[in-house]
């Protein structure tokens, strides 16, 4: 890291001082002048405070330093002789404590220290296959850093540093070009730091740790080909999207997503219903351009097949349907006690799927708990996707995830 380039006034620090711009607390020591091979008595202290007074005072925080390291620290970071003397003066009332080889003092006023690979029963630092020179501390990655520093993203930085950028150590608030610190990296505002990569909101680090990918929920899966997240569909369903519904739906085989429902490729969606191409949904039916209601041939066959097994009550209902409504439509009472009817296609009507809901028949697909998009296919409710917090089961229901 470049030396700390700032001019400090040759005056005593103020006791009380308003908020001022902070001087960078980052420092990157590459050498030491004092080395030890055994337990050694050292005076170490947290060096921080205000230098100067009034409007000319600046705040500094150089972390935990030992007296014997001050000369090297000031030389590496470009601090003046006056500042050197000032820092050394902070140790006048600091007592000596003994520290073992390879330890890192923590300046807790009790002689505390840490060892990267644990302590032996006698308090010395446990050894590692790698070895460091005197005045060096072994890091958790097996490399060595000068005492008073720690490894951050491959660099030996001061313990007060918060991250690295462009091969330099940075203290809190020291990122440049409008960037902010995130997990030891200088990133654009709103981005998150992952190892050596910053990712925008909604993305995370990829498995190779070389770039960012979309962050999928537990109900989604990542698709490498498109670089997007897609819903996890149940057995027999595939995910499909459209220009009018980019979030997509889970559709049964052979059907594709339209806007609110999944239709066959030979059909189009009209008012939330699937109709043959060229038809529109009006008056509770797929209407041909001439205005005559119709239904796909597959539905007509289903109606004819059902007639062979109808009960007397059902035959009576069918006669009412044929008398009051166009072919393939059911005459559903409007209210249980009403003599008024409405014509519904119970093979596709989402609120009277499979029968007239007003007389307790069929099912109201919109009442399925947790369902976001649903439809009525061949008189049976089908769920295409669920609301957040629910997952699709068998294409028929949504259960809490």
From TrEMBL:
**InterPro entries on file:** CPL1-like, PriA/CPL1_fungi
What organism is listed for this UniProt entry?
A: Filobasidium floriforme
What are the residue boundaries of the Protein CPL1-like domain, all occurrences included? 341-398
Position of the signal peptide: none
Superkingdom of origin: Eukaryota
Record-given protein name: Protein CPL1-like domain-containing protein
